C-alpha cells in the first residue's frame, strides 16, 4: 500500500512529506521510502501559527481560517509529491497527517485541563487528495491519561529494535525527544520523553539577533564563546529536573522565554548568545541521559535525527558532553534524519487503519494502549 506521511513540527521550518510503500503491521511492518520533499512554510501561515502558538492576541476567526488554510497547504503537498513521483493522490491507501501543533498542555494547570491542539483540517486533505486521512494522533492518548507525546517511539521500536544493543534515538526538531529501546526488549520496555529544547531557542535567537531563520551548519555558534552566567541559569531550568514521562513545547522554550534571556544578556556578543543556547540544547539532552537513562540501562549508542543534525556545532557539543558513548547520525546508519518523523506517522497511520494501538504508555504515561488518530474518508 502507498501512503504519504506529513509532519510540520514546532520549529516551523517547513512541511516534511514522505511517500512510502508500507506492508504488514506491528513488528512485521515493512516500509520503503520512495520520495521525500520539504515544502517551505508560506510566510503568512508561518506568522499566524507563531502568533497562535505564542499565545499572542488572535481572533477565533483567524484560528478557524488557519485550520483550513493549513489543510489546503497539506493537500497541495500530497498532490505535488505524488505528481513528482508519477502517481495520482487517489492511488494512495492513506495520508497520515500529524498536523501543526499550536498549543500543548501536558498537565492540568491554572484551571486549564490537559489538552492539545493540532490544526490542518483533515476533511480538506481527504477531499482534495481523494484518499483516507489519518490525523489528530495525540488526542486519544491524552484521553487515556497520557501526555499525547512523544508519539514516535512506537515506530522507532518497529524500525530499530536490537537483540544485543540498547539504543537511544534522539530527535532534535523544535523540541528534543529521546526514545530508549533496551536490548532484546518488548514494546512495553520502551521509554521516551522530551529532553527539552531542540532547535527552537536557537532559531528564535537567530531571528531576533540576525534576522535569519536558523544557524546554518552551526557556523554562528562555532564563532562564539559560552556565557558562563547564562550557562549557570540554563542549567537550573526546572524542566530538566522533572522526572519522565514528560513533554514540553513552545509554551516553555518558545520565543518569549528566548527574548527574556536575550534582553537579560544583551551586553554580550550575539554569537556568544547563540553559542550558549546551542550548548544548552546539547546539555539538556546529555543531562537527561545521565540523570534518567544511564543509571537504568547499559546504553550502547546514541543515534541523532531531525533538523538539529545539520547543526555541526550542536552535534559536536553533544559528543563532547558524553564522550564515553558512541554518537551517530541517522545518515551514518543509512537512514534519513529529515524524513524520520514523517515516516513515523506513516507507520502510526497504518496501525490506526488496521485498528491496532500504537501509543507507548511507558513514554506518554497513558493508562493503557489505545488506537491513535481520527480517520477521515474522501467523498
Automatic annotation (TrEMBL):
EC annotation from Swiss-Prot or TrEMBL: 2.7.1.170
Catalytic reaction(s) noted: 1,6-anhydro-N-acetyl-beta-muramate + ATP + H2O = N-acetyl-D-muramate 6-phosphate + ADP + H(+)
A Pfam family hit: AnmK
Listed InterPro entries: Anhydro_N_Ac-Mur_kinase (IPR005338), ATPase_NBD (IPR043129)
Enzyme class: transferase
Residues reported in the UniProt entry to bind ATP: 9-16
Keyword vocabulary terms for this entry: ATP-binding, Carbohydrate metabolism, Kinase, Nucleotide-binding, Transferase
GO MF annotation, one: kinase activity
UniProt similarity note: Belongs to the anhydro-N-acetylmuramic acid kinase family.
Function: Catalyzes the specific phosphorylation of 1,6-anhydro-N-acetylmuramic acid (anhMurNAc) with the simultaneous cleavage of the 1,6-anhydro ring, generating MurNAc-6-P. Is required for the utilization of anhMurNAc either imported from the medium or derived from its own cell wall murein, and thus plays a role in cell wall recycling.
Protein name: Anhydro-N-acetylmuramic acid kinase
Gene name of the record: anmK
Amino acid at each position: 500500500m502507498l501512503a504519504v506521511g506529513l509532519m510540520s513540527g514546532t520549529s516551523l521550518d517547513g512541511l516534511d512529506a514522505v511517500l512510502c510503500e508500507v506492508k504488514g503491521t506491528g513488528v512485521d511492518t515493512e516500509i520503503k521510502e520512495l520520495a521525500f520533499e520539504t515544502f517551505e512554510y508560506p510566510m503568512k501561515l508561518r506568522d499566524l501559527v507563531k502568533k497562535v502558538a505564542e499565545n499572542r492576541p488572535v481572533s477565533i476567526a483567524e484560528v478557524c481560517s488557519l485550520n483550513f488554510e493549513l489543510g489546503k497547504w497539506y493537500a497541495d503537498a500530497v498532490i505535488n509529491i505524488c505528481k513528482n513521483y508519477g502517481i495520482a493522490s487517489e492511488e494512495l491507501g492513506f495520508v497520515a497527517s500529524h498536523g501543526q501543533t499550536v498549543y500543548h498542555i501536558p498537565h492540568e494547570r491554572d484551571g486549564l485541563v490537559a489538552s492539545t491542539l493540532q490544526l490542518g483540517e483533515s476533511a480538506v486533505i481527504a477531499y482534495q487528495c481523494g484518499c483516507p486521512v489519518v490525523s489528530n494522533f495525540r488526542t486519544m492518548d491524552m484521553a487515556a491519561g497520557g501526555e499525547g507525546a512523544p508519539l514516535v517511539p512506537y515506530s522507532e521500536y518497529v524500525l530499530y529494535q536490537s537483540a544485543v544493543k540498547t539504543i537511544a534515538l534522539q530527535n532534535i526538531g523544535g523540541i528534543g525527544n529521546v526514545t530508549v529501546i533496551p536490548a532484546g526488549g518488548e514494546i512495553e520496555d520502551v521509554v521516551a520523553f522530551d529532553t527539552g529544547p531542540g532547535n527552537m531557542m536557537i532559531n528564535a535567537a537567530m531571528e531576533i539577533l540576525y534576522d535569519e531563520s536558523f544557524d546554518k551548519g552551526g557556523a554562528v555558534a562555532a564563532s562564539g564563546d559560552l556565557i558562563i552566567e547564562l550557562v549557570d541559569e540554563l542549567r537550573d531550568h526546572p524542566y530538566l529536573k522533572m522526572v519522565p514521562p514528560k513533554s514540553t513545547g513552545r509554551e516553555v522554550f518558545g520565543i518569549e522565554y528566548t527574548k527574556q534571556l536575550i534582553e537579560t544578556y544583551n551586553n554580550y556578543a550575539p554569537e556568544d548568545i547563540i553559542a550558549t543556547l546551542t550548548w544548552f540544547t546539547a546539555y539538556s539532552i546529555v543531562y537527561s541521559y545521565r540523570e534518567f537513562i544511564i543509571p537504568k540501562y547499559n546504553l550502547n549508542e546514541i543515534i541523532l535525527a531531525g533538523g538539529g543534525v545539520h547543526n555541526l556545532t550542536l552535534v559536536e557539543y553533544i559528543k563532547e558532553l558524553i564522550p564515553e558513548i558512541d554518537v551517530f547520525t541517522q545518515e551514518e546508519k543509512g537512514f534519513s534524519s529529515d524524513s524520520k518523523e514523517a515516516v513515523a506517522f506513516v507507520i502510526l497511520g497504518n496501525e490506526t487503519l488496521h485498528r491496532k494501538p500504537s501509543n507507548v504508555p511507558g513514554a506518554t504515561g497513558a493508562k493503557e494502549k489505545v488506537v491513535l488518530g481520527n480517520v477521515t474518508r474522501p467523498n
